[in-house]
Amino acid sequence: MVARMNDTTDEKNVSFGFEDVTPDEKVSRVKGVFRSVATRYDIMNDLMSAGVHRLWKHDTIAKLNPQPGEHLIDVAGGTGDLAKAFLDRADRAGKRQGKSSPATAVVCDINDAMLDAGKARKDMNPYSGRLEWVCGDAQALPFENRTADALTIAFGIRNVADRAAALSEFRRVLKPGGRLAILEFSHMTAPMLQEAYDTYSFNVIPTLGSMVAGDRESYQYLVESIRRFPKQDEFLAEVEAAGFSRTSVTNFSGGIAALHYGWAV
Hints:
By secondary structure, the chain is α/β, with parallel strands linked by helices. The protein is about 45% helix and about 20% strand. The chain is built from 9 helices and 9 strands. The strands form 2 sheets. The chain has a 7-stranded mixed β-sheet with strand order 5-4-3-6-7-9-8, with helices on both faces. Strand 8 and strand 9 form a beta hairpin. It starts with 13 loop residues before the first strand and ends with a strand.
Protein backbone atom coordinates (compact mmCIF):
# COMPACT_ATOMS: atom_id res chain seq x y z
CA MET A 1 0.00 0.00 0.00
CA VAL A 2 1.01 3.49 -0.54
CA ALA A 3 -0.70 3.78 2.83
CA ARG A 4 0.26 2.29 6.16
CA MET A 5 1.98 -1.08 6.47
CA ASN A 6 -0.26 -2.15 9.33
CA ASP A 7 -3.66 -1.05 10.54
CA THR A 8 -2.30 1.33 13.12
CA THR A 9 -3.84 4.56 14.26
CA ASP A 10 -0.64 5.49 16.12
CA GLU A 11 2.72 3.82 16.70
CA LYS A 12 1.44 1.52 19.44
CA ASN A 13 -2.17 0.63 18.69
CA VAL A 14 -3.84 -1.46 16.00
CA SER A 15 -7.48 -1.87 15.14
CA PHE A 16 -9.74 -4.52 16.60
CA GLY A 17 -12.92 -3.75 14.74
CA PHE A 18 -13.69 -0.12 15.52
CA GLU A 19 -11.60 -0.21 18.70
CA ASP A 20 -7.90 0.61 18.95
CA VAL A 21 -5.93 -1.86 21.05
CA THR A 22 -2.34 -2.96 21.58
CA PRO A 23 -0.98 -5.61 19.20
CA ASP A 24 -0.82 -8.18 22.00
CA GLU A 25 -4.42 -7.48 22.96
CA LYS A 26 -5.53 -7.87 19.35
CA VAL A 27 -3.83 -11.27 19.11
CA SER A 28 -5.50 -12.39 22.34
CA ARG A 29 -8.93 -11.12 21.37
CA VAL A 30 -8.78 -12.58 17.86
CA LYS A 31 -7.95 -15.95 19.42
CA GLY A 32 -11.00 -15.56 21.62
CA VAL A 33 -13.24 -14.71 18.66
CA PHE A 34 -12.34 -17.84 16.72
CA ARG A 35 -12.29 -20.10 19.75
CA SER A 36 -15.86 -18.97 20.38
CA VAL A 37 -17.13 -19.60 16.83
CA ALA A 38 -14.99 -22.60 15.78
CA THR A 39 -17.70 -25.25 15.91
CA ARG A 40 -20.10 -23.09 13.85
CA TYR A 41 -17.52 -21.45 11.62
CA ASP A 42 -18.28 -23.34 8.40
CA ILE A 43 -22.05 -23.07 8.63
CA MET A 44 -21.83 -19.35 9.42
CA ASN A 45 -19.66 -18.80 6.33
CA ASP A 46 -22.32 -20.48 4.20
CA LEU A 47 -25.14 -18.45 5.76
CA MET A 48 -23.37 -15.08 5.61
CA SER A 49 -22.38 -15.43 1.96
CA ALA A 50 -25.23 -17.67 0.75
CA GLY A 51 -22.50 -20.18 -0.08
CA VAL A 52 -20.69 -17.82 -2.44
CA HIS A 53 -17.49 -18.03 -0.39
CA ARG A 54 -17.05 -21.50 -1.88
CA LEU A 55 -16.93 -20.00 -5.38
CA TRP A 56 -14.37 -17.42 -4.26
CA LYS A 57 -12.20 -20.19 -2.81
CA HIS A 58 -12.62 -22.27 -5.98
CA ASP A 59 -11.39 -19.35 -8.10
CA THR A 60 -8.50 -18.74 -5.71
CA ILE A 61 -7.29 -22.31 -6.09
CA ALA A 62 -7.80 -22.18 -9.85
CA LYS A 63 -5.53 -19.12 -9.97
CA LEU A 64 -2.86 -21.00 -7.99
CA ASN A 65 -3.02 -23.93 -10.45
CA PRO A 66 -1.71 -26.63 -8.04
CA GLN A 67 0.58 -29.26 -9.50
CA PRO A 68 1.62 -32.77 -8.42
CA GLY A 69 4.36 -32.80 -5.80
CA GLU A 70 3.84 -29.21 -4.70
CA HIS A 71 3.65 -28.13 -1.08
CA LEU A 72 1.11 -25.61 0.23
CA ILE A 73 1.13 -23.65 3.48
CA ASP A 74 -2.40 -22.46 4.27
CA VAL A 75 -2.06 -19.73 6.90
CA ALA A 76 -5.04 -19.00 9.15
CA GLY A 77 -6.34 -22.11 7.43
CA GLY A 78 -9.03 -22.83 9.99
CA THR A 79 -10.98 -25.94 9.07
CA GLY A 80 -8.95 -26.65 5.94
CA ASP A 81 -11.15 -25.69 2.97
CA LEU A 82 -8.33 -24.26 0.85
CA ALA A 83 -5.84 -27.00 1.70
CA LYS A 84 -8.35 -29.68 0.72
CA ALA A 85 -9.16 -27.90 -2.55
CA PHE A 86 -5.45 -27.50 -3.33
CA LEU A 87 -4.79 -31.22 -2.88
CA ASP A 88 -7.83 -32.20 -4.92
CA ARG A 89 -6.87 -29.98 -7.84
CA ALA A 90 -3.24 -31.13 -7.77
CA ASP A 91 -4.44 -34.75 -7.86
CA ARG A 92 -6.58 -34.04 -10.93
CA ALA A 93 -3.60 -32.38 -12.63
CA GLY A 94 -1.49 -35.42 -11.79
CA LYS A 95 -3.97 -37.79 -13.37
CA ARG A 96 -4.05 -35.72 -16.58
CA GLN A 97 -0.24 -35.62 -16.69
CA GLY A 98 0.27 -39.24 -15.68
CA LYS A 99 2.25 -38.19 -12.60
CA SER A 100 1.88 -39.95 -9.25
CA SER A 101 3.81 -37.59 -6.96
CA PRO A 102 1.20 -36.33 -4.48
CA ALA A 103 0.89 -32.71 -3.41
CA THR A 104 1.07 -31.98 0.32
CA ALA A 105 -0.31 -29.22 2.53
CA VAL A 106 -0.12 -27.85 6.03
CA VAL A 107 -2.92 -25.91 7.69
CA CYS A 108 -1.38 -23.37 10.05
CA ASP A 109 -3.67 -21.49 12.42
CA ILE A 110 -3.03 -19.56 15.62
CA ASN A 111 -6.18 -21.01 17.16
CA ASP A 112 -6.13 -24.62 18.30
CA ALA A 113 -9.94 -24.74 18.44
CA MET A 114 -10.15 -24.01 14.70
CA LEU A 115 -7.60 -26.72 13.96
CA ASP A 116 -9.55 -29.19 16.10
CA ALA A 117 -12.72 -28.36 14.15
CA GLY A 118 -10.88 -29.01 10.90
CA LYS A 119 -9.35 -32.29 12.03
CA ALA A 120 -12.82 -33.47 13.10
CA ARG A 121 -14.16 -33.13 9.54
CA LYS A 122 -14.81 -36.58 8.07
CA ASP A 123 -14.04 -35.35 4.55
CA MET A 124 -10.44 -34.78 5.65
CA ASN A 125 -9.83 -38.49 6.35
CA PRO A 126 -8.62 -39.36 2.80
CA TYR A 127 -5.74 -36.88 3.14
CA SER A 128 -4.05 -38.58 6.08
CA GLY A 129 -0.29 -38.44 5.63
CA ARG A 130 -0.52 -35.56 3.15
CA LEU A 131 -2.20 -32.93 5.30
CA GLU A 132 -0.64 -31.59 8.49
CA TRP A 133 -2.21 -29.34 11.14
CA VAL A 134 0.10 -26.86 12.91
CA CYS A 135 -0.67 -24.23 15.52
CA GLY A 136 1.32 -21.12 14.59
CA ASP A 137 1.28 -17.35 14.22
CA ALA A 138 1.26 -15.72 10.78
CA GLN A 139 3.78 -13.18 12.10
CA ALA A 140 6.30 -15.90 13.05
CA LEU A 141 5.62 -18.98 10.96
CA PRO A 142 7.13 -22.23 12.32
CA PHE A 143 8.57 -23.28 8.96
CA GLU A 144 12.00 -23.21 7.34
CA ASN A 145 12.97 -20.75 4.62
CA ARG A 146 11.89 -21.53 1.07
CA THR A 147 9.85 -24.63 1.80
CA ALA A 148 6.49 -23.87 0.11
CA ASP A 149 5.49 -23.74 -3.53
CA ALA A 150 2.33 -21.83 -2.64
CA LEU A 151 0.93 -19.98 0.35
CA THR A 152 -2.69 -19.07 0.92
CA ILE A 153 -4.53 -17.09 3.57
CA ALA A 154 -8.30 -16.71 3.33
CA PHE A 155 -10.19 -14.19 5.46
CA GLY A 156 -7.30 -14.08 7.92
CA ILE A 157 -4.93 -11.26 7.02
CA ARG A 158 -7.18 -8.56 8.49
CA ASN A 159 -6.97 -10.33 11.86
CA VAL A 160 -3.16 -10.07 11.98
CA ALA A 161 -1.78 -7.40 14.29
CA ASP A 162 1.23 -6.62 12.06
CA ARG A 163 0.52 -7.26 8.40
CA ALA A 164 4.02 -6.23 7.32
CA ALA A 165 5.54 -8.89 9.57
CA ALA A 166 3.16 -11.52 8.21
CA LEU A 167 3.83 -10.62 4.59
CA SER A 168 7.57 -10.79 5.28
CA GLU A 169 7.07 -14.28 6.71
CA PHE A 170 5.06 -15.33 3.66
CA ARG A 171 7.92 -14.18 1.45
CA ARG A 172 10.47 -16.01 3.61
CA VAL A 173 8.83 -19.45 3.50
CA LEU A 174 8.03 -19.40 -0.22
CA LYS A 175 10.46 -20.88 -2.69
CA PRO A 176 11.67 -18.69 -5.55
CA GLY A 177 8.81 -18.76 -8.01
CA GLY A 178 6.33 -19.54 -5.25
CA ARG A 179 2.83 -18.10 -5.42
CA LEU A 180 0.99 -16.06 -2.79
CA ALA A 181 -2.82 -15.90 -2.75
CA ILE A 182 -4.60 -13.71 -0.18
CA LEU A 183 -8.39 -13.91 -0.23
CA GLU A 184 -10.02 -11.32 1.98
CA PHE A 185 -13.24 -9.41 2.44
CA SER A 186 -12.77 -6.02 0.84
CA HIS A 187 -14.56 -2.93 -0.41
CA MET A 188 -17.30 -2.69 -3.02
CA THR A 189 -16.34 -1.12 -6.33
CA ALA A 190 -19.48 1.06 -6.48
CA PRO A 191 -20.45 3.45 -3.63
CA MET A 192 -24.15 2.59 -3.91
CA LEU A 193 -23.35 -1.11 -3.56
CA GLN A 194 -21.15 -0.38 -0.55
CA GLU A 195 -23.98 1.39 1.22
CA ALA A 196 -26.34 -1.54 0.65
CA TYR A 197 -23.69 -4.03 1.72
CA ASP A 198 -22.98 -2.05 4.89
CA THR A 199 -26.66 -2.08 5.77
CA TYR A 200 -26.78 -5.84 5.33
CA SER A 201 -23.52 -6.44 7.18
CA PHE A 202 -24.26 -4.41 10.28
CA ASN A 203 -27.88 -5.47 10.60
CA VAL A 204 -27.92 -9.11 9.47
CA ILE A 205 -24.52 -10.69 10.17
CA PRO A 206 -24.34 -10.00 13.93
CA THR A 207 -27.93 -11.22 14.27
CA LEU A 208 -27.04 -14.44 12.43
CA GLY A 209 -24.04 -14.82 14.70
CA SER A 210 -26.27 -14.54 17.73
CA MET A 211 -28.86 -17.00 16.42
CA VAL A 212 -26.56 -19.66 14.93
CA ALA A 213 -23.27 -19.37 16.84
CA GLY A 214 -24.60 -17.84 20.04
CA ASP A 215 -22.08 -15.02 19.66
CA ARG A 216 -23.16 -11.63 18.40
CA GLU A 217 -20.02 -9.79 19.48
CA SER A 218 -17.63 -11.90 17.39
CA TYR A 219 -19.61 -11.24 14.23
CA GLN A 220 -19.92 -7.56 15.09
CA TYR A 221 -16.12 -7.56 15.16
CA LEU A 222 -16.12 -9.32 11.78
CA VAL A 223 -18.04 -6.58 9.98
CA GLU A 224 -16.12 -3.81 11.74
CA SER A 225 -12.76 -5.37 10.87
CA ILE A 226 -13.72 -5.47 7.20
CA ARG A 227 -14.44 -1.73 7.22
CA ARG A 228 -11.07 -1.02 8.81
CA PHE A 229 -9.18 -3.12 6.26
CA PRO A 230 -7.36 -1.17 3.49
CA LYS A 231 -8.87 -0.79 0.05
CA GLN A 232 -7.68 -3.08 -2.71
CA ASP A 233 -5.02 -0.86 -4.25
CA GLU A 234 -3.64 0.09 -0.84
CA PHE A 235 -3.23 -3.50 0.28
CA LEU A 236 -1.70 -4.42 -3.09
CA ALA A 237 1.01 -1.84 -2.40
CA GLU A 238 1.70 -3.58 0.94
CA VAL A 239 2.12 -6.90 -0.86
CA GLU A 240 4.53 -5.31 -3.33
CA ALA A 241 6.47 -3.61 -0.51
CA ALA A 242 7.01 -7.05 1.01
CA GLY A 243 8.91 -8.09 -2.12
CA PHE A 244 6.29 -9.83 -4.24
CA SER A 245 6.29 -9.37 -8.01
CA ARG A 246 3.76 -9.67 -10.84
CA THR A 247 1.02 -8.76 -8.39
CA SER A 248 -2.65 -8.49 -9.22
CA VAL A 249 -6.08 -7.97 -7.65
CA THR A 250 -9.24 -9.81 -8.65
CA ASN A 251 -12.52 -8.53 -7.23
CA PHE A 252 -15.21 -11.08 -6.45
CA SER A 253 -18.92 -10.21 -6.24
CA GLY A 254 -18.34 -6.53 -6.90
CA GLY A 255 -15.59 -6.25 -4.31
CA ILE A 256 -17.22 -8.02 -1.37
CA ALA A 257 -14.06 -10.11 -1.48
CA ALA A 258 -10.80 -9.62 -3.33
CA LEU A 259 -7.93 -11.93 -4.26
CA HIS A 260 -4.48 -10.37 -3.98
CA TYR A 261 -1.92 -12.46 -5.83
CA GLY A 262 1.83 -12.30 -6.24
CA TRP A 263 5.01 -14.24 -6.98
CA ALA A 264 8.12 -14.68 -4.85
CA VAL A 265 11.18 -14.19 -7.07
